[in-house]
Fold this sequence. Notes:
The protein is an alpha/beta fold.
Amino acid sequence: MKLALKLPKKTNNIIFGNDSFEIVNIFKKNNIAHKIYSEDFVTVYFNARFILKYIKNFIKLFNSCHPLQLIYNNYHLTVIQSMSPKFIYTQTDNSTLIHWLSKYEKNIRFISIQNGLRTKHELKYFKNKHLENYNHDIFFMFGEHEESMYNRMNININKPMKLGSLRLGMFLEKKYLCHKKYNICLISEFMREPNKKLKHYEIQKELYDYELKFHEILNQYIIDTNQKILIALNNHNREDQIKYFTNIFGDNAIFHENINIFSSYEAVCKSELTIGFFSTLLIESLALGNKVLSVDTSNSDRYFDYPSCIKHDYRDYSSFKAYVDKIINMNISDYNVLSKDISKYSMTINHSRYPHNEILKIATGGIKI
Length: 369
């Protein structure tokens, strides 16, 4: 935290959130002026205009949320208003603050880019107290699945734009060529066993147990079929991931390092089948024309709410083994016909309108919104 007497500098473009680095790279690469805004860095403004604006906002928006939450939200609103941006871009599409800001600040256009699957698990257990203030202004979403889900939940989207995955679009534009080398690629959705002192311990422990059970079942399949398994590591806690998966799969584990934003795509494209629990990469891999399977030991739709074509609700090992064998042995052209509708429904692919190019058009005035 720091103190300041002057108001923050003005800018036309704010990039919001610590995980919006792909948007930052787009702006830097094209020399577009912008400011990066993070909730983590707080400046206390001893400025009469700022304080007066804060008080006016607080009175006006008093009923918008809990008073303690309003103290926090209104601070960020007042700072952003002082910067006078035309646009705020974010990849933190599930930020409760960005939703609140876009609902109550009508003089700024908020452009949210979907950065992961949004599940009933997340919205019911972790965002439920904020859903009444959920609001998207301009929303770059994966596809019809998200639009349908938000409509069912009565979440407003002023301008839905079904453009697919930002990162996947960048990968497709590179036109990478990969050859199949492995049967199965497991997506690392590694999570540590939760601490009992956590606020949501029981919910987190339940999820951890579901995932562990899935991995143990998959290991039995790998042993029974006498093969190796490629594991696409994510970019967090590398050593912990390797320790965890080695403990389960032993010498049958082959690790695909996460060295850049396209590493996971390269891993799934080298494999006949992409398998996981509820990773975004499952839907992205399907859009790349690969065979995919979510294995759900919860027997619910809380984590991966997609049809049985790409999801197996686990009940017994023999059924699981038969299902995986069937998919692996299926001709890829037959599989693509079978999964065509769900692929189109889940992830929009428009080669003339990749999300990163649409962002660039908005930032440079090529698109009026």
